[in-house]
């Protein structure tokens, strides 16, 4: 500001300048609240972590009610403990899953201690049948992410020397995955024995998410090791899956990896499919391959057309598009977070409100809620400490900075402490109508639930760096050298990508920056753009009679149109 030295003007200038330094009491209040909340979440994380380390480590997961352990990595393969080698002590899954959270909390001592222990003790040479998807997102993803955090100089997490021990463990595990992909279709078996490969008479049934959500971890492993086999196996499976889509661009939920036939035709954004969508978009962000975006765009459009009913998403038959099941599943609550990455903030906001409404109704989110009857599913009444609502809340707060999302986070924190905290950790809820507990603290509570809640109240980690989060909440750095071809405009640091031409304004929330369009505006002041911080839809519930009611999409700046069934969306292909 320039202040010419005339006394009257000088006084005015002083007043104006002072105003800049007066702290807005509401923002001060917000900062105090954020600080209190992040301390509460920190306490939650350490309550879960310390109990795990005391009563369960080096086994996989904690049983918080009996203060004992479970070896879930192999239990996930339905093996009873007596089938495991007698000297088997677990694979410390919760420790592997906790490393990236420890890094975000800035606990370099525990992070480094964990790495040392794993590098000296962790082995995958065990006769255990494990679920490929779970082992990939939890163990491979956890190791790769911690490796990237360890070598990122901005984190200063390692005091001594780090010799890529985690990457070597990841490479060993990745190699043990490869036999699963040796099928006529290239689609991987759902189960693999880490020591012996695919077992005799192994089931050939798997899920869409099971074979379509491997590319982030296996692609990163290839980029880091220079061994292309991991990425090409995961990519081949993804492409095969995409070839199996219906003419409506929908995929079923389960399939046969040998015949390549669909088993379950009902399609959704929830269980069995969820992370397939997530990985198409995030693979595009991470690897910059146009193919991923093309697949994602078609799949996303189809999801909006066939599943969406206002803020809700029901299931539909992949061939006919006709609704099958009208149910909300708690896994679907990740969807608004994904929509933030797409830039579809208005849609994200309206769905998120509905999930939160159900959370408030029960105190936590039940696994299934029947939308047509507005009642809880008779048997799936559990809440295993899932992270999805906290995850979406974090993304929406990043995109809008609307303090209402902090209140949502506070409600989630209160519920978790009220209903699930026990002296030995945090226990899953068996029945949300009675709040009866179950003796299990899943590792994703540390990898995701606590992490997203913490990031909601302290975004310094994401503000300074450009990371995407895997479906298990493990951060992977977005680096331009991994991009197939560099975007035409690459704003280092702040932007994942930005292109000219018809795609140009789809920079945005992809890099988790706030108000991206405003920043873009300042570079090209004459160009009109909507900001992701404003919800541009005229129709907040997205219902419409004509195109002109639908407004402009926040981040893509493309015109929304009214669909045949009366909902605004990005229906027109680019
Ligand atoms: C996590 O293991 C992952 O997010 C996965 O994709 C599905 N959801 C669970 C936790 O609910």
From TrEMBL:
GO cellular component: endoplasmic reticulum membrane; endoplasmic reticulum quality control compartment
Enzyme's top EC category: hydrolase
Membrane disposition: Single-pass type II membrane protein
Any GO BP: carbohydrate metabolic process
Enzyme Commission number(s) of this protein: 3.2.1.-
GO molecular function, one term: mannosyl-oligosaccharide 1,2-alpha-mannosidase activity
Domain of life where this protein originates: Eukaryota
Active-site residues, Swiss-Prot/TrEMBL: 134, 274, 367, 388
Organism: Arabidopsis lyrata subsp. lyrata (Lyre-leaved rock-cress)
Main location per the UniProt record: endoplasmic reticulum
Record Gene3D superfamilies: 1.50.10.10
Required cofactor(s): Ca(2+)
Presence of keyword Cell division: no
SUPFAM superfamilies: Seven-hairpin glycosidases
Keyword Transmembrane attributed: yes
Protein name: alpha-1,2-Mannosidase
Keywords, in A-Z order: Calcium, Endoplasmic reticulum, Glycoprotein, Glycosidase, Hydrolase, Membrane, Metal-binding, Signal, Signal-anchor, Transmembrane, Transmembrane helix
Binding residues for Ca(2+): 471
Family according to the record: Belongs to the glycosyl hydrolase 47 family.
UniProt-annotated location(s): Endoplasmic reticulum membrane
InterPro entries: 6hp_glycosidase-like_sf, EDEM1/2/3, Glyco_hydro_47, Seven-hairpin_glycosidases
Endpoints of the signal sequence: 1-25
């Amino acid at each position: 500001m320039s202040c010419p030295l005339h006394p009257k003007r000088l006084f005015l200038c002083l007043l104006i300048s002072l105003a800049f330094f007066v702290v807005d009491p509401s923002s001060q209040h917000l900062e105090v609240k954020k600080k209190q909340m992040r301390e509460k979440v920190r306490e939650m994380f350490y309550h879960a972590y310390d109990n795990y380390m005391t009563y369960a480590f080096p086994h996989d997961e904690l049983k918080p009610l009996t203060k004992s352990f479970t070896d879930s990595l192999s239990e996930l393969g339905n093996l009873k403990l007596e089938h495991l080698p007698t000297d088997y002590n677990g694979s410390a899954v919760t420790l592997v899953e906790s490393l990236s959270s420890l890094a975000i909390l800035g606990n370099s001592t525990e992070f480094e201690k964990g790495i040392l222990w794993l590098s000296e003790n962790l082995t995958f040479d065990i006769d255990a049948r494990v679920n490929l998807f779970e082992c990939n997102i939890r163990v491979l993803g956890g190791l790769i992410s911690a490796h990237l955090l360890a070598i990122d100089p901005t984190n200063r997490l390692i005091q001594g020397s780090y010799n890529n021990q985690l990457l070597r463990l990841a490479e060993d595990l990745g190699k043990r995955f490869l036999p699963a992909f040796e099928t006529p279709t290239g689609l991987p078996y759902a189960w693999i024995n880490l020591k012996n490969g695919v077992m005799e008479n192994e089931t050939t049934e798997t899920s869409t998410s099971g074979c379509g959500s491997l590319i982030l971890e296996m692609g990163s492993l290839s980029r880091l090791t220079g061994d292309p086999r991991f990425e090409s196996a995961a990519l081949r499976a993804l492409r095969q899956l995409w070839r199996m889509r219906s003419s409506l661009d929908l995929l079923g939920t389960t399939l046969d990896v040998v015949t390549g036939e669909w088993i379950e035709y009902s399609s959704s954004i929830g269980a069995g499919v969820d992370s397939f969508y997530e990985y198409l978009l995030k693979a595009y962000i991470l690897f910059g391959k146009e193919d991923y975006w093309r697949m994602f765009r078609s799949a996303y459009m189809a999801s909006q057309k066939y599943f969406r009913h206002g803020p809700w998403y029901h299931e539909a038959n992949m061939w006919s598009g006709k609704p099958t099941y009208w149910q909300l599943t708690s896994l679907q609550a990740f969807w608004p977070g994904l929509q933030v990455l797409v830039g579809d903030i208005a849609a994200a906001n309206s769905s998120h409100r509905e999930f939160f409404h159900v959370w408030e109704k029960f105190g936590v989110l039940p696994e299934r809620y029947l939308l047509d009857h507005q009642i809880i599913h008779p048997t799936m009444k559990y809440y295993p400490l899932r992270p999805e609502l906290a995850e979406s809340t974090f993304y929406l707060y990043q995109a809008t900075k609307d303090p209402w999302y902090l209140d949502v986070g506070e409600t989630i924190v209160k519920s978790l402490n009220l209903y699930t905290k026990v002296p030995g950790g945090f226990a899953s809820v068996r029945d949300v109508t009675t709040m009866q507990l179950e003796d299990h603290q899943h590792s994703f509570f540390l990898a995701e639930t606590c992490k997203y809640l913490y990031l909601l109240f302290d975004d310094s980690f994401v503000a300074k760096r450009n990371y995407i989060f895997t479906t298990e909440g493990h951060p992977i750095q977005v680096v331009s050298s991994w991009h197939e071809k560099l975007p035409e405009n690459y704003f280092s640091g702040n932007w994942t990508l930005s292109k000219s031409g018809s795609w140009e304004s789809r920079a945005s929330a992809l890099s988790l920056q706030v108000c991206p369009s405003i920043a873009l505006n300042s570079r090209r002041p004459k160009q009109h753009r909507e900001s992701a911080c404003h919800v541009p839809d005229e129709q907040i519930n997205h219902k419409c009679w004509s195109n002109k009611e639908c407004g402009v999409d926040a981040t893509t700046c493309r015109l929304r149109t009214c669909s045949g069934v009366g909902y605004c969306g990005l229906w027109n292909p680019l």
